[in-house]
């Protein structure tokens, strides 16, 4: 008969060594023991010891009648059923099943390895009740390594419904030797899949992009000239297709940081967010996942998100574990290879990257001789503008320790957005949901705004286009803005200033605006032209208020410029000057009586106040100020919604760039969050309307009926 120590050692060996061969396990293939009915791996010594202990307990209480064997089996089965859910990893907590549990002083219970990882990353409050802990769990790296938790996250998703083999067995399956060319994607039939679900667009012309213009003033005295007369050009994308089965399909590559700092709750939150992404993709969409730590690897090639593809993708993502350093450059390099080597391409393509740390493999921190960090080394030039394979990268910085400057630079160089995500549960999923709401509603691609001067003497003096590439021709008689991609119902504003000469007549025709773009769904080229923009020229001087739309946009442009100036001052450790720049702009906004009741202006002032508070000192700026400001600058630069960390108090402009599709996807995300997450992380989602109230005397030029050019799109684009 074996001693108790021998029985324990035998049971431990059984648990560690008796495993299924490494393979993808479908739900129906999971051993019955994983759903609480029968042990998949018989551990005779453990069962015998458990039964012996049960008999001893029965004898000690002097049971009146012996319990039947079925009752004992039910008792043992019941002990393996989850009694509680860990609020960090959302997997079950089973007492006496080899899991170390931690009960906090507020009486809430968690897995020990989950909560100790939380504490090691500076979180000292209860994730459930937010109580501040005085007695903290501690776990050394040596102990972690000994128990395997330093490189593996053994937690499963109880709510996900995915039953998987042990991650130790799954890792070799996904990290196979990579080929030199990523050309083994699941193929698509472009002819039959021009829209999600294989839908076809009818002969009727779809809704087109709308152009609306506003002049700074309705009239200029006939004998006067103006050197910088402002014209606002407002673009609004068409509505989303009536049926989601006719939207443009997507090729998406997600690049996920699984370095050691992502261990514990962070990795669990990332997996849950990825589950949301996978489940909201359609069969015509394709997904590929790149994981990176000290190196990077492709979990799987571009795969159609059919029911089987979703299941396989979820299994691959759930196999991820956190260990090693951070190699952002190699992760993006792998993603670029996936995009470059595609044999066929869906109409819409994008890359999403999430990281919680600083690149420790490519960039040198701090740089030598005080030289600036070369963030261009992070992004392969093959996917930037002008390469023929341009793909925007939407970057997400997670937590307080991520490199916000690197993430912002990656997004800015590629024409994507940078979002700042705090450590709160649910934040990653909500941020991903907002981004996916845009990517799954692309209706316009390769849009180019063209401005042509009309009457003689009218010249273009400037174009305020933010992050969008723009230019003025040499003779100053024309200019352009490369707008690129637009989501359904998305709106963009561009300020154009022109020189207006003295005139002899009733009016002066200033400019004509036109937009040429590719319809992402119908795959054809569309040209929309506005009516000529004119200004009245009375003989006498005219007194009129500035257009509210033009004034509001001027303030937004100036505020964006001041945000950049304040951020530059803060980088030089001049926090007093940074705060002063922001305060001056805020006071200028609040002093405008005409904008006192304007919601967007009020929200912009509130945003400036929030930034001002985050640049008061070195600690505040480095903790969250830098990331918050860079995310705001990214949002205003491209007039597109971004996540800003904890923005629950800002109910206006932070969300004013949201489109209806983004709001809808956010509602889906928040409806799926566990109750504890909903209580902790509730932020406003409904964006205020960007449709401004009418001017007292509006001068509005609406677009004429669009017409289609004879050229057509072949269906292949990046």
TrEMBL record:
Residues 61-78 have a biased composition (Low complexity). CDD domains: RING-H2_WAVH2 (cd23114). Residues 30-78, 684-718 are annotated as: Disordered. Keywords: Metal-binding, Zinc, Zinc-finger. PROSITE patterns: VWFA, ZF_RING_2. Pfam families: VWA, Vwaint, zf-RING_11. Residues 86-130 form the RING-type domain. PANTHER family: CALCIUM-ACTIVATED CHLORIDE CHANNEL REGULATOR, ZINC FINGER (C3HC4-TYPE RING FINGER) FAMILY PROTEIN. This is Uncharacterized protein.
